[in-house]
């Protein structure tokens, strides 16, 4: 049986997961990659977050933080809320799958 991760270890593991896949997927999306690629990155992120026992509210907060950091500075202000809505919706759907 594997030991349960404490909150610090979970946060550290989550940060590694975010930096690996989401940054690349967001950049590709902003360059015009198919939306399905970003959705797959969200699904991968959420499934990995669940493995580290990350609660849903922390998953959503992490997704939003990632978007604010990597997408918002590179897109029109009026387009950003729609991207957040899509990504958060996919994240919730995947979390409860």
Task: Please describe what this structure looks like.
The protein is mostly helical and 97 residues long. Helix content is 74%, strand content 0%. It has helices spanning 7-30, 35-51, 56-70, 80-95. Helix 3 (56-70) runs antiparallel to helix 4. The radius of gyration is 13 Å and the shape is elongated. The two termini are 25 Å apart.
Keywords:
74% helix; mainly alpha; 97 residues
Q: Helical proportion?
A: over 70%
Largest sheet: none
Tell me the number of strands: 0
Number of helices: 4
Q: Strand-and-helix sequence, N→C?
A: HHHH
End-to-end separation in angstroms reads 25 Å
**Gross geometry:** elongated
Question: What would you report as the Rg, rounded to the nearest angstrom?
Answer: 13 Å
Strand content: under 5%
List segments where confidence is low: pLDDT < 50 over at least 5 consecutive residues. Answer: none
Based on secondary structure, the structural category is: mainly alpha
Oligomer type: single chain
Mean pLDDT: 89
Question: What's the short version?
Answer:
The protein is an all-alpha fold. Helices cover 74% and strands 0% of the residues.
Spell out the blueprint of helices and strands.
Blueprint: H1 7-30, H2 35-51, H3 56-70, H4 80-95
